[in-house]
Amino acid sequence: MADLVVHTDLHGDDVAYRLAGSGETVLLVHGMAASSRTWRFVLPELARGFRVLAPDLPGHGESAKPRGDYSLGAFAVTLRDLLAELGIGRVTVVGHSFGGGVAMQLAYQHPELCGRLVLISSGGLGREVSWMLRLLSAPGAELVLPLVALPPLALPVLAPPYLRPLGRGRLRSWLVARGVPADRAEEVWRAYASLSDTATRQAFLRTLRSVVDPGGQAVSAQRRLHRVGLPTQLVWGEADPIIPVSHGLTAHQAMPDSRIAVMQGVGHFPQVECPAAVVKIIGQFIAATPAAAAEGDG
């Protein structure tokens, strides 16, 4: 069930999602240039105790890639409408990287839908971000990126099955030779390979430029996070090269009731690099932390 992708129409655009399990709902929101597949190790384990929903955000994965609004607010509206379409009420929302910003925006715009918040290597909590993302946000990146993400380099996506290991294996070997763990290298490969598709690449640049400029992260969710006041669990890799762990530590210090788990030797993808630990953290957080009461409850 966790591997089954379902499609639904939201206002004329196709939205793909994975749904598994039963019980209290956990909403998993992936990061930029990713898809619901980033939760492939976490989703089936969480589904043993929860109903788990993992959508492909617009412009990502198998969802439609329209010309339109790729702001945090637009993504939050899509999640709101998807929950309504599926008849799902309040959720524990888990966001990774850019998805953390989307999760905070959903909680801010629609607090009635969110009972708890889990932020994994989240954007929106500080200015610093990797130099590569800052570079790609600059004018002209749309001219250079097609030359870098050529279809021949995305061999695992486009080639026949018997040729697919070649491209992925070469890139993974190159990354691993430079000290990048294999599971992290695989996730980097998936993000890179997706950009060989023109529509995905255009959606990626629109999404990126909605939150990042050449100076760093241009959108801060810190104040919104405080105003929402949800029980919050922060999860970070100590060796994250994309969004530094200092962002998580600063956010935790500013929220006395929050929790934080810092994973030694882990990079930007804890849900891939140490999925069992992430599942345990989420499960324990939900078990120990009552969901915030919705306005009007009680």
Automatic annotation (TrEMBL):
<dbReference type="InterPro" id="IPR000073">
    <property type="entry name" value="AB_hydrolase_1"/>
</dbReference>
<feature type="domain" description="AB hydrolase-1">
    <location>
        <begin position="26"/>
        <end position="280"/>
    </location>
</feature>
<protein>
    <submittedName>
        <fullName>Alpha/beta fold hydrolase</fullName>
    </submittedName>
</protein>
<dbReference type="GO" id="GO:0016787">
    <property type="term" value="F:hydrolase activity"/>
</dbReference>
<dbReference type="Pfam" id="PF12697">
    <property type="entry name" value="Abhydrolase_6"/>
</dbReference>
<dbReference type="InterPro" id="IPR029058">
    <property type="entry name" value="AB_hydrolase_fold"/>
</dbReference>
<dbReference type="InterPro" id="IPR000639">
    <property type="entry name" value="Epox_hydrolase-like"/>
</dbReference>
<dbReference type="InterPro" id="IPR050266">
    <property type="entry name" value="AB_hydrolase_sf"/>
</dbReference>
<keyword id="KW-0378">Hydrolase</keyword>
